[in-house]
Design brief:
The chain is α/β, with parallel strands linked by helices. It contains 17 helices and eleven strands. It folds into two domains: 248 residues, TIM Barrel; 112 residues, no CATH class. It has an eight-stranded parallel β-barrel, surrounded by six helices. Strands 7-11-10 form a three-stranded antiparallel β-sheet, with helices on one face. The structure holds flavin mononucleotide.
């Protein structure tokens, strides 16, 4: 059994989880009023961000408050509990939340949400699809809810429904990006105009862009790809290496099996195969989940997506690909042939070229402090204007 699979069974439900502080609208307003901004680590599915949330939430910074996000995707309740408890132990009193995608299997979605709420996380954030149920579950549990949006219209809707903050995610982001991508600078403007909620800017954000988004009114930024390229985090060293030394031509936009959405990945034999019309039906996942399968589901297709949303399953496995196989192979095994390496456009701006050069989350946050210091002029001008 792999180490990751062993972890799935190693944690018993906690009886009295110490709750993390709530990241609600008032907490964000207080942070902004103190002169700081949020530095959110974006949740990355299928274990790509495991091990990062606590490090970001614990980072010391003069300019930012770090916020860690754990992805619930393809985690059993035991695994999700273990990852939340690990992050809280790394960052006592820090902001640790959980990312859920409404496109996943409906029963898994509810179980993950309820597990996260039971563990007392700082917030739940929803991407890839919209479920209003989760907003109700959060309200009942007294846990702030945040929505990931790609338009001002959706931000306004989330505000009406009771969200505490929104992540404006531009077309430069990693993983699933939808069909209509707004570049982040115009999206931030649109979203800030459409809602009074705090807005976090995500997608392709580089240290040199920070002042620009804060001048537009963002309460924080969310980064994901930058944190993949860190010496912290559990992703396979090859997963990290595949992101380094890349240029624009090394990025592929694929059609995902998830509703046929567009997604951004590092160009690889797998993405070239997809572009040539090859299909990748599901294979046994016993190598990762062990003989009892994922949530007791032992077939090659573990039905990870909500009914009707998987193009591969809908075609009786004749078309498209199995996303759990492809992403797991990349993150857990570093398989350069059968793995799919989701990434953000910001990979072309990563300075490191070898895994041995990667620095800690703390060192990356230190760079952000220095970069924002250098951009203070833009912030002052915005305040005066
Ligand atoms: C490998 C990878 C996996 C991701 N998985 C998810 C996910 O499961 N749910 C989600 O809402 N966003 C996901 N994202 C998007 C990030 O959370 C983040 O918002 C975005 O990538 C930010 O852009 P950046 O990577 O350029 O910093 C993923 C991104 C990457 C690179």
């Amino acid at each position: 059994m792999s180490m990751a699979a062993e972890n799935l069974t190693s944690s018993a439900p906690s009886t009295a989880p110490a709750p993390a502080p709530k990241l609600d609208r008032a907490a964000i307003a207080a942070i902004v009023a103190s002169g700081k901004r949020l530095l959110v680590q974006g949740g990355m599915g299928i274990h790509a961000s495991d091990g990062l949330a606590g490090k970001v939430a614990a980072a010391r910074s003069r300019r930012f408050v770090g916020v860690g996000t754990i992805s619930a995707v393809i985690k059993t309740p035991e695994h999700l509990r273990a990852e939340i408890q690990r992050a809280k132990a790394t960052a006592p009193g820090g902001f640790v939340g959980v990312n859920l995608m409404a496109a996943i299997n409906k029963a898994d979605f509810e179980l993950s949400a309820r597990t996260a709420l039971d563990e007392g996380v700082s917030f739940l954030v929803q991407g890839a699809g919209i479920s209003r149920d989760i907003i109700r579950w959060c309200r009942d549990a007294g846990t702030p809810f945040a929505g990931i949006v790609s338009s001002g219209r959706l931000a306004a809707m989330y505000e009406k429904w009771g969200a505490e903050w929104v992540v404006a995610e531009g077309a430069e982001a990693g993983g699933h990006i939808g069909d209509i991508g707004h570049p982040l600078p115009t999206l931030v403007e649109e979203v800030c105009a459409a809602t009074s909620l705090p807005v976090v800017a995500a997608g392709g954000v580089h240290a040199s862009d920070l002042g620009r988004y804060f001048a537009q009114g963002a309460a924080g930024v969310q980064l994901a790809t930058r944190f993949i390229a860190s010496s912290d985090g559990d992703a396979h060293p090859t997963f990290k290496q595949v992101h380094l030394g890349k240029k624009a031509e090394d990025v592929a936009i694929i059609t995902s099996c998830v509703k046929g959405m567009k997604a951004r990945a590092v160009r690889s034999p797998f993405t070239d195969g997809l572009a040539a019309g090859k299909s990748y039906p599901p294979r046994s996942k016993a190598w990762y989940f062990g003989p009892s399968g994922y949530m007791g589901r032992k077939k090659a297709c573990i039905e990870c997506l909500a009914e009707g949303l998987c193009k591969c399953r809908a075609s009786n496995f004749q078309e498209s690909f199995c996303i759990t196989d492809a992403l797991l192979r990349a993150v857990a095994q570093g398989d350069e042939v059968q793995g799919l390496y989701y990434t953000g456009q910001s990979l072309v701006r990563l300075p490191e070229t070898k895994v041995g050069e990667l620095r800690s989350v703390q060192a990356i946050v230190d760079d952000m402090d220095v970069a924002l210091d250098a951009q203070d002029g833009a912030l002052r001008e915005a305040a005066l204007g």
